[in-house]
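Quick one, T. Sequence first:
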Amino acid sequence: MAKQRHITERTTRGRAEISDPRVLRALAHPLRWSLIDLLALEGTATATRCAEVLGESQATCSFHLRQLAKYGVVVQASSASKRERPWKLKLVDQAWSSVQPTQAGSLAAAELSQVVAEREMARLLAWVRTRHLYPEPWQQASTVSATLVWLTAEELEDLSRRLVELTAEVGERFASRASDQAARPAEALPVRLLAAGYPLPAPEPAHPRRPNRG
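Structure tokens:
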């Protein structure tokens, strides 16, 4: 039996930091993130259940779950059934640095970051389109905000660290609700917290200048 590859070199507040390029590449797949999200919401799920929710075949879900297990992201959960075992997340929260020790690692991290960013933006846009369907208290409680500030790289790094720590603290505070449905208030819904800070790209002219022909 092949030895399971380690997915992290260190953890902070229960957050796994992924550094293995093979794991970064393995996670750069939208369906695998859908499986991760479903397991985070339901606690455990079989490949059949994943197929029902995600609209994929049972064989496809089973394959990708096995790939996630190969890289230590999910594990099989205990079950009385001998026909099909459910899966659960090994680590609920994952993180990675955009700067890796090798070029291959940095390229894999960039590919993974693009997949995750596209997924997050799609979900945010879905909320914006459908927020009117939610009760007014939920509409008022939600927020999408942005601001422009001038920062040094060191200041942005410090701010990013504090944002990560804040979201990690919130995750720890309500961690019991992820695995124990009885711990969730009746009116609770799954909520996505998204934080980002990045330098803006230099603006480009809408119409490139034509060469001066004299």
